Amino acid sequence: xxxxxxxxxxxxxxxxxxxxxxxxxxEEINGILKSVETYISEMVKMxxxxxxxxxxxxxxxxxxxxxxxxxxxxxxxxxxxxxxxEKLFGYKKEEVIGKDFEFLIPEYIRKxxxxxxxxxxxxxxxxxxxxxxxRITNTGEIKEVSIxxxxxxxxNHECIGNVGxxxxxxxxxxxxxxxxxxxNLALIGAVVSSIAHxxxxxxxxxxxxxxxxxxxxxxxxxGYEELKVIIEETTRITKSIRQLLNFSxxxxxxxxxxxxxxxxxxxxxxxxxxxxxxxxxFKKSLRKELPEINADKDLIRDVFLNIITNxxxxxxxxxxxxxxxxxxxxFIGIEIGDxxxxxxxxxxxxxxxxxxxxxxYGKGTxxxxxxxxRVIKEHQGxxxxxxxxxxxxxxxxxxxxx
Length: 402
Prior knowledge:
Layout (H helix, E strand, L loop, with lengths): L3 H17 L5 H23 L4 H12 L3 E6 L3 E5 L1 H7 L3 H4 L10 H4 L3 H12 L2 E9 L5 E12 L5 E10 L1 H46 L8 H25 L6 E4 L1 H12 L7 E7 L7 E4 H18 L3 E10 L3 E8 L6 H4 L19 H11 L3 E7 L3 E9 L2
Helix pairs in contact: 1-2, 8-9, 10-11, 11-13
């Protein structure tokens, strides 16, 4: 004897057979009935749980949203953690439910009181919209995020918590930064080109006349040293203008197979001539049989020359400059370190910014490291720096192996 469910299913089968038998096989009809049975079962289950189809629909939207949606009980205790939050922060739901959300806030932001600010802002204004800040993932990665937050109420209009919608805007912020940098470079290029045009002819006339007058004088003659200073200073100004012009232009790579060790050896030999009276020891630890990489020889040489020259200038009278190369599956590593004066923590964050320099007046344009960073990034590499005051500075460059 068939049960009630079996009779109902048989009745449906016969009904489908009469109506669609000419178009569908028995196997296809049974497949449709199985799907219908599943959907009905799910609906019954929702009804028993007191949930409507609309509630299930909206519940799925929240739980499967690409944006992180986090529910907070008592302002800070997490009770909702959707798939977007798992993807953004790397924590599973069971790892965070019941925790205070402050573990997502980087320490330096937490110390500024951001947690209390967010909670109080929602209480005072009723919501927070598109608040840009940073959050930290389970791997320690810092993410740029946009936060919107608002209270939730029960049927008696009592506040039972908050919901935060957190959107990852790291890539957007990166693109905005790159766009601003390009706009700034375009402005610099326009201004510098105009200045260079107006200054180049007068500088050439001054330098040329000084050179001509110097030919007719001996070192012991009056005015000899003054003429030398004029030539040196006009040369310095011309060099600075050329640096500005080069910096304002887009970096165009002319790549060829390069041996990084050979480029470093060449640069070290050149730098030895600018150490003046300093007693500097160059320590080399260059990994043998490094693979060649495709890179722009002139630009890479300029990067190494700039960083090693900075190391020389960072040493007061004596010290050590260490140059190392290494290799892993993806990158060739270049490490350039010195035992010089070091860089303060506040300045360390600025050294790659255009025109920032810790050198004295007239000793640099502040473009060398900024240009070096651009070159390395154009090669799809990266550059890092660590430093301690009065201990020294180390630059680490990574260039991809093709």
